[in-house]
Amino acid sequence: MSAPAASLRRILAIAHKEVLHVVRDPRSLYLALGMPVVLLILFGFGVSFDMDHLPLAVLDEDGSDASRSFAAHVFASGELERVEVEGLDAAHSTLAFERREAIGVLIIPRGFADDLSRGRALSVQLLLDGVDPNTAVQALGKAETLVRSAGLSVLRERTGASNPIVLPIETRVRTWFNPQARSALFIVPGLAAYILALVSVLLTSLTLAREMEQGSMQQLFATPVARPEIVMGKLLPYLGLGAVAVLLVLTAGAWIFDVPFRGDWVALSVASLIFLIGMLGQGLLVSIVARTQMVATQLATMTSMLPSLLLSGFLFPIENMPLPLRVLSNIVPARYYIHALRGILLRGNGFPEIGGDLSALTIFAVVVLALGTARFPRTLA
Amino acid sequence: MSERDHVIEVSHLERTFGAFRAVDDVSFHVERGEIFGYLGANGAGKSTTIRMLSGLLAPSGGKAIVAGFDVGKEPDEVKASIGYMSQKFSLYTDLTVSQNFDFFGGIYGLPRKEVKRRIAELSESLDLKPLLGEITGSLGGGLRQRVALASALLHQPEIVFLDEPTAGVDPVSRRSFWALIRGLASAGTTVFVTTHYMDEAEYCARIGMMVAGRLVALDTPAALKKTWVPGRMLAVAAEGEPDKTKAAAALRQTEAQMKALPGVISVEAFGAGLHVRFHDGEVSEAQLRQAAETSEIAVDLRPVEATLEHVFLAAADAGSEARIRKDQGFGESATSNSSNEATP
Predict the structure, then answer these.
(1) Three-state SS across chain A?
(2) What are the tens digits of pLDDT across the range A25-59?
(3) Which residues on chain B are in Cβ contact (under 8 Å) with A214?
(4) Structurally, what CATH architecture does the domain formed by A54-159 represent?
(5) Are B107 and A10 an interchain contact pair (Cβ–Cβ within 8 Å)?
(6) Domain boundary pick from B196, B226, B256
(7) What pLDDT, in 10s, does the model give residues A293-334?
């Protein structure tokens, strides 16, 4: 009996047993395959930065044909929705916010029609509810654009189409890769990384912690099985499960949210594999620190969910973070995976463009696995 | 017996945890095919010893050779040549019995064919055939222990370490489990077993007794009884007295009478009666009977054999006394000066 053959048999024995556990108790299967899809659907539909129908109230102090026409133009596109707030007047302009009926109030001042007919500069006022800054900023952006074009429209109506208005400079924007600026295209890659991080760290740490808790790890230590063999045997099945989860999330993303696939399949597979190995290694580390399933669950969730949600660029741009968080985000593998994934899916990238991400992911995987194997207990009290 | 037949050879083995000396200068050997019992109270160092001998824990000092390998230097070789079954049931309860066997066979690096052959063999000899397809968690305690034993034997180890294998198992299952252990030993496997059950200890060829980290006694059960429980023993019972209070009073009186006699070593409560131990030459049975008859009611005296329980208690007392003397710095040789730290 040669040593490598025996070693392979030991690894396979552990991997096979792990598969049996999963088959016997399909909860981890639901966790690995069901949860990603559910989360994808919840997040995909629920978390949207596309804000249509933002409710906006109008306080028309002018009450002229011109002001009514102007307001009609503002709401014509449907991006903002006009709401009527009862009792809204100049003295009670924040009433709309207090009652949460509108996030903004557009005030058309007295003399609007007059200014228009005399060719004076027009001005209107926009009040915003700043409680939710994200929404306020979006509303501001939309309202500004809409007010400007509505202003031009009423001006044209007054002066006649024959009298063109020339703006000093105009920006003509064309957005590439995601022309409709759909949030789903931005979210799905991030979500894939987030889900995979959470699920794979959780699954690995649970399976190891369970053995430590139940005493079977002690039994394993009494056999000639080496620690790297335990680690390999434990990680193999979950790597397979994780790979299926990746496929599932990306397929669901393409199918439900029309996320395109423009790049290199092989690059995607390699990136996913290395990312998964790193996450499984992190699960290994978590279980070594935690030792019990209860602690492992909490620690796994905390160390995988929070960083890949907050520090990965999934939801919040890393460039906007304060320096300490920006530095911290460098050790969050989800950051590199999301970057690579967005590149591959949306920009059509391949190996040359994601090389940096792959190196970072590889370094993380090697470090956690080496650390995990080295810190893996030889014996349990 | 030649040295070659000592499958376990332990000399001056030591293990400390911080200031605590869990195993303190322990030396002994175990012969091939022997059932060696290792007794001691909780925390006496039994499990620490067994974990060192099975390569799970490195010794802090001394040396132990198990199956020809040094436990400190070649723990993996030791692990490959021994079977280990711990007090905690450590099979996978969600898998079937045969899946557990497959797993442990693979863990010991056995080829599939060999695993199959051994499963067939063991399920025959341990009577496990009808259980192979069962979920391990659904089995009762006795059967589980048998399955655990079988999985520790798959790779045909020279030695099996059984750490309290029958803890929490009913008496009938314990008996049949010990029948298996005796069968193993007669087939040449060395069995190193720890237990809390003194009736089980009687099955062992030799017994080591640990008290507070030290091996205080080591011999056959019969010799241990002779050394540690000297003298003869009589059981004293109040016969035919329906009034329990009266009987108890009479026995108390008897106890006092007997204790006053020279040559009486001890008088202890046992069941509803007393056990009196005495030196045969110094006091006669007739004198004891006389002492018993001074009480108002009829008292019956019968000779009884000392049990390992008596040995255990005597050894534990002696061991802890020796320990206290040593810790206080009284006497003993210079070799133990290094071990003067107090135990928690």
Answers:
(1) CCHHHHHHHHHHHHHHHHHHHHHHCCHHHHHHHHHHHHHHHHHHHHCCCCCCCEEEEEEECCCCHHHHHHHHHHHCCCCEEEECCCCCCHHHCCHHHHCCCCCEEEEECCCHHHHHHHCCCCCCEEEECCCCHHHHHHHHHHHHHHHHHHHHHHHHHHHCCCCCCCCCCCCCCCCCCCCCCCHHHHHHHHHHHHHHHHHHHHHHHHHHHHHHHHCHHHHHHCCCCCHHHHHHHHHHHHHHHHHHHHHHHHHHHHHHHCCCCCCCHHHHHHHHHHHHHHHHHHHHHHHHHHCCHHHHHHHHHHHHHHHHHHCCCCCCCHHHCCHHHHHHHHHCHHHHHHHHHHHHHHHCCCHHHHHHHHHHHHHHHHHHHHHHHHHCCCCCC
(2) 888 788 778 888 888 788 777 766 666 678 888 98
(3) 90
(4) 3-Layer(aba) Sandwich (3.40)
(5) yes
(6) B226
(7) 999 999 999 999 889 888 988 888 888 889 999 999 999 999
